[in-house]
Design goal:
alpha+beta, globular
Length: 156
Amino acid sequence: MDEKFLEQLHQFIVQAKTATYVGNGSHTASHRPKSHDLAYENSDFSYLDSYFGGSDFIGEEVVYYKGEPIWAENYYGRIIEPNLLTASEAGQMIKVSLSKMYAEGRFLGGFQFEQEGLVYMDTSKGDISTFNGLEWIEKDGTRLYELVYHGGLIRD
């Protein structure tokens, strides 16, 4: 994959992530029993985010180009302190934080956002080709939620 294509892929991933979970996109029919699925398409690219759970959850995002899988990300997130942060509060903070990161035209880490006493942090290593990272929410130095993720290009 050349640099121009990787840039198109990167832009598409940001668009897809913005339009689906962060943008409260409509759920599609479940592709796996009991999964929650969000989909997005633009030209030859399509995206599917399929996850299980709520306060503790696991999922996978896949980008297809002309029907072939070319990129994916896996993630697992959980509420560490349910007495201090609800799944709804975590989801709201994540959506606000990620919408600000995506507005910068990127989806990988090195990002921090604070709101109403909560701090959202995201760190990652690598680039669109291969990466891993961690996001978390803390309050007064106590980690309340965390999510680990990794992914990259898919090649035959």
